Amino acid sequence: MTLIPAAVAIAAGYGLAAVIVVGGARAWQPRLLAAFAAGALAFPVTVFLATSIQALLASLFGLGPDAFAMTLGAGIAGAFVTAFVNEVFKLAAALLVWTPSRGRSPVVFGAAAGAGFAAVGAYQVIHLALMARVLPISSPPAFVTSLVQQLAFVAVNSASTAVAAFGIVRRRAAAYLGAVIFVQTVFAVFGLLYTLQAYSSVAWTVLDLAVAAAVVAGASILDRRPAADAALASAA
Length: 236
Prior knowledge:
Elements: H1 3-23, H2 30-61, H3 67-70, H4 72-97, H5 107-132, H6 140-169, H7 173-195, H8 201-224, H9 226-235
Helix pairs in contact: 1-5, 1-6, 2-4, 2-5, 4-5, 4-6, 4-7, 5-6, 6-7, 6-8, 7-8
């Protein structure tokens, strides 16, 4: 029980940092907190829904219970299903809070919803990593690797939802949403390839950080383009 506050603090800190870096937020307004909370509430829903869809696909195609986690073809399909469900629900969480009439870019609300979503998932992994530290087989590098990977997880989820939200005011929602679903699928496949022993945990972590940095940079550039203000004004 004593590890729970520490895990919550780390995960929440990651989420706060993501909203500041990705969305450019400097103050936690009530609506940003609402977007963060909506994203957090979406996490268990997406886990249930994605798992159910994967189970249905496994039944239809006669796949074993571990096919999505232990085989490349089924794993890619499962990663796509998860990415699709996650991004749709994260974007919906952001749009529940954002209103064009308020005159503010939806990117920050996408960043907040995505950060809230990912913070819940990161908390679970961080809590397990903290508990594993007391085991004799635990090592400091493994613990640090887990923390870094979860930082990348929060960053990429916050940024991907920010990009998808930006697509709303650009009137290219399908294109932007499709792009971030593809990125999230690739991000998940990196973990699958590590499970299949294609490379080391260090290589996996570097790949995760590279994708997260690229998506965060993309979200930041999009939100600061002059076209963002014009699109936002036309949506008002």
